[in-house]
Amino acid sequence: MDSIDTSAPPEPLLEVHGLTVEFRTRRGVVRAVDDVSFSVQPGERLAIVGESGSGKSTACLAIGGFLPPYAEVTAESMRLDEVDLLARKTSRIPLGTPHLGLVFQDAMTSLDPVWTVGSQLLAALKGKSLRAGVKESKGEALAEARDWLHRVGLTDTERVMKARPDALSGGMRQRVMIALALCGGPELLIADEPTSALDASTSHEVMDLMVEMTETLGAALIIVSHDLKLCQEYTSRMVVMYGGKAVEQAPSIDLDTTARHPYTSALLGCVPTLAKRNVDLLPIIPVNVPRESASVHGQCVFRDRCEFAVAACAVAPPLVDVADRHEAACWVTAGPTDADSRIPETVGSH
Ligand SMILES: Nc1ncnc2c1ncn2[C@@H]1O[C@H](COP(=O)(O)OP(=O)(O)OP(=O)(O)O)[C@@H](O)[C@H]1O
C-alpha cells in the first residue's frame, strides 16, 4: 500500500496578509494597494501581473521598505522568513541585505550615476561583511566584486569596474543591478519590470540570468511585469492585480484555461498573436460604468468606450492616453462568471 505523506507543507518564505498602501496626496488619498494577500515558498518563482497603475510596484516597494514616508502601509501581517516586515524601524533597507534583493525597471536611475560600478559593488559587499561580522581585505573584496561581474556575464571586468553606469549599455546596467541585488545572498529577489527597458533578445538573456542565478543561490524570485507571456514562461504561479486588488492567483502554466476573473481573461485576450493582427477591438469586460464618473476635467479619456478600454489599457498603450489613464475615475464593477469567494465583486478602478 502506498504510504500517505503526512508531512506539513513547507513554511512560506514570504507571507503577506491584507496589505494596504495609501498615499496622502494634495488631491486626496490614493489607495494603491487594497487588502492584498499572497505568499511565496522558498525557491519559488512568482509573477505579479497587471496593467500600469494596478499597484504591483507599490506592493513590492512596501515589502522592500522603499516607500516614501507619506505612504501609509498597513497589513494583518507581513513576514519574510523570521523577519516581521511591519516592525522594521527604518523605512529603507539597503540593496543586498541577507533576506531581500531588488532589481528595478530602469537601472540607469536606480544605480548611482556618480559612483563607478566597482565602488557600488564594493559598498554592497562591505555591507554584507559587516552584517556577517567578517573582515574582508581590499584585495579579497575586489576579487569578489570581479567574480560577481563574471557571474552575471560581464567579461570585461576591469573596464566595467571602472565605468560609471552611463558608460554601459542597458543590458550591461541591468546585469550590474542583478549582481548588486544578489551579492548579499538574499533569500528573495524582487525584480520590478526588469526587462521593460530592454529589447526582446536582451530581455530573455536577463530573465534567463535571474532564473539561473536565483536557482543557484536557492533564492525565491518575484517578477513584476505586465508581460503575461514572459511571466508564463519563467514563473510557476501568478498573482493578477487590478485596481490595487489581487483579483486572481493561479498556476502560470494553466492560466489560459483556468482564468476565472473577467479581468484575467481580458488580459490574456490582449496578448498580441499573429492570429489577432487584424483585430481592431480588444476583449471586453462586461461592465457597468456610471457615465458621470467616467468624466475627467469634463472629458472622459475613454469617451463612451470605457468597457473595452478597461482591457485595452492593459497592453495597448496607443489606444488610450497613458498620462490620462491614471486620472480616469471610472469605477467599474464586474461580477465574476463563476461565483467564487476568492474573487471580489468589485474589481476596482482604472
Ligand atoms: N509615490 C506616490 N504618490 C502618490 N501616488 C502614487 C505613488 N506611487 C504610486 N502611486 C499611485 O499608486 C497607484 C499604483 O501605482 P504602481 O506604480 O504601484 O502601479 P504599477 O502596477 O506598478 O504600475 P506600473 O506598471 O506603471 O509601474 C497608481 O495610481 C499610482 O499613481
From TrEMBL:
SUPFAM superfamilies the record matches: P-loop containing nucleoside triphosphate hydrolases
Pfam families: ABC_tran, oligo_HPY
Protein keywords: ATP-binding, Cell membrane, Membrane, Nucleotide-binding, Transport
Name of this protein: ABC transporter domain-containing protein
InterPro entries associated with the record: AAA+_ATPase, ABC_Ni/Peptide_Import, ABC_transporter-like_ATP-bd, ABC_transporter-like_CS, Oligopep_ABC_C, P-loop_NTPase
Lineage: Bacteria, Bacillati, Actinomycetota, Actinomycetes, Micrococcales
Signal sequence region: none
UniProt subcellular location: Cell membrane
Entry's family note: Belongs to the ABC transporter superfamily.
Keyword S-adenosyl-L-methionine included in the entry's annotation: no
Domain ABC transporter: 16-268
Main location: membrane
Domain of life: Bacteria
